Amino acid sequence: MMKAQDLPKVYLSKNLRCALVGLQYILLPISTTLMLSTPAKSWDWIMLVVFVVVMAASMFVHTTLALSIGNICQGRLDRLDERERTMRDATFVTAFEIVKAVLSVAWIYGVLAFFLGWWLPQGQQIWILLWMFAMMAYGLPTSVAAFTMPETPRDSI
Amino acid sequence: MTAKRNTKEKMVIYNRLPVLRAERGLSRQELADAVGVNFQTVGYLERGDYTPSLELAFKLSEYFGLPVEAIFSNRPFKPLSEQMYKKTEVR
Predict the structure, then answer these.
(1) Which of A83, A87, A154 to probe by mutation at the B interface, max B CB count within 10 Å?
(2) What pLDDT, in 10s, does the model give residues A70-84?
(3) Longest pairwise C-alpha distance within chain B
(4) DSSP 8-state code for residue B74
(5) What is the 3-state secondary structure (H, E, C) of B1-16?
(6) Least CB-packed of A34, A87, B53, B78 within 10 Å?
(7) CB contact, 8 Å: A81 with chain B?
(8) CB proximity A150 to B under 8 Å
């Protein structure tokens, strides 16, 4: 019935989870800005180390958050009970709404930028922004779950 | 208008799970194993943070050998001692 992998590997208070979600969405724009602001072929090893450190920190935060919520957003569905499935469903709906909002804003900005001559990504920058969007979409359900899941009292751990 | 608002209001379901579990000396883990849920879900149920499905409610009722309405109610339960004492008085 109960498997070892079902147990939460990490206990984090709700406030700490929310802070880590915030940190994650600070680290991601930092790494993207780093890539956008550095022209191709002009990367030196210091920039590369900074980028790898920022990315590693972001992945570490994501993994910690995933473990603290019992990893409900990944893995097989039959591993979860009905409460966790309900929570997972609600999380994915919220994440999808956020993705929809981001895409809508990007679309409106794109149209306005095209007609008004604002900044638009060129060449390699398009791939960097797509990469950032993919990373955000990948981590979003876990972030939403970590942000919204109520505090788990220590007596139920 | 009122009907529409009522459907949006979350119904509170009260339960006697902590008492029943304590009476039988069960840990959350043991009860969770018996009804096939994560042990944290038992905590959520006991605190009223999660309303069980009909399936889970029946599993719990079968496990404790009690009718569902003896475990779950939409009104706060009176203390068992008070109920028992009143029954004794009537006799």
Answers:
(1) A83
(2) 888 887 777 888 999
(3) 48
(4) S
(5) CHHHHHHHCCCCCEEC
(6) B78
(7) yes
(8) yes
Phi, psi for B73 (deg, rounded to 5): -155, 155
| Structure-block tokens of residue A92 | 């994915």
Tell me the shortest Cα–Cα distance from B71 to chain A, in angstroms.
18
**What is this structure's pTM?**
0.77
Contacts with B44 from chain A: Cβ below 8 Å: 83, 156
Residue type, B54: L
Contact B70, B17 (CB under 8 A): no
Residues B62 and B36: beta-carbon distance below 8 Å:
no
Residues of chain B scoring pLDDT < 50: 1
- Shortest distance between the Cα of A83 and any Cα of chain B, in A, equals 7
Q: Do B36 and A1 touch (CB under 8 A)?
A: yes
Q: Give the minimum alpha-carbon distance from B55 to chain A in angstroms, rounded to a whole number.
A: 10
pLDDT at B5: 54
Contact B39/A156, CB-based, under 8 Å? Answer: yes
What confidence tier does A109 reach under pLDDT thresholds 50, 70, 90? very high
| Residues B75, B20: Cα–Cα separation, whole Å | 18
If one counts every other C-beta atom within 10 angstroms of the C-beta of residue A19, the result is 13
- Find the angle CA(A80)-CA(B16)-CA(B90) to the nearest 5 degrees: 160
* Contacts of B25 by beta carbon, 8 Å cutoff, 6+ apart: none
Q: How confident is the model at residue A9 (pLDDT cuts 50, 70, 90)?
A: low
Could A70 and B40 be called an inter-chain contact, meaning their C-beta atoms sit closer than 8 Å?
A: yes
Please say if the pLDDT value at position A3 is more than 60: no
